[in-house]
Amino acid sequence: MNIRLVAPNDFPAVRSLVAAAFGRTDEADIVETVRTGGAALVELVAEAGGEIVGHVLFNRMTCAPALLAAGLAPLAVAPSRQGQGIGAALVRRGLDACRARGAKGCVVLGAPPYYGRFGFTAAPATIASPYAGLAAFQSLEFESGVFARPIAVQYPSAFG
Q1: What is the pTM of this model?
Q2: What CATH number is given to the structural domain containing 36?
């Protein structure tokens, strides 16, 4: 399996994969809107046998005060390939790429047992978000203390 940056010729396959993984097109529409709006920080695909089998998008979050933070969403793996570690590999590689691009931290809205294995913990009360207080709203600091001070984070408008 090869994990790499998405390329324009991957876009149709990514759309099909994300729609299949979620059983609807809402998340595929979000990916395309984020991408065309310039809010994608890191977008990766997993390829096996010449086929796109996984995809992850890390969004540029709007933060106040200003800060480069990533928002992980969505993560998709082909239904026939789920449970094989593809999603985990995409998340790990994506987090590394976000750090390399200067992001100071990352947030995610997802299952705590799954994302906890990558170092995500319950987002502190200092992070203002429409998702604040939900168990699924988690954060990961790349720079110690970055989420210790009050900050408001917002996903790109494509998320509604």
Answers
A1: 0.95
A2: 3.40.630.30
